[in-house]
Amino acid sequence: MLKRLFILLAVVLACAGGWAQTFKAGVSVRDITPQAQIPMWGYGARHDHPGTGTIMPLHAKALVLDCGNDKVALVGLDLGRGPTYAMMEQILEAVKTRAGVGYVLAVGSHTHHGPAIELLDEPGLGKGKFDEAVKYAKELPGILSDMIVEAANSAVPAKIGFGYEETDLNRNRHTKKEPKPRDPRLSIIRVDNLDGKTLAVVVNLAAHPTIENIMDRRWSPDWPGYMQKRVGEAMETTCVFLQGAAGDMSPNTTNERRGAEGFGNAAAEKAVAIARAITPAVPENPGLTGVHRTFTGETRLDFNNRVIRGTLSQFFFPEMMAMLVEIPDNKVTLRVDTVLINGDLAIVGGSGELFSDLSTQIKARSAVPQTLVLGYCNGHCMYVPTLPAIEEGGYGADATVSWVPVGTGEKLVEQAVADIAGLKDGSISQ
Question: Which regions in the chain score pLDDT beneath 50?
Answer without folding.
Answer: 1-19
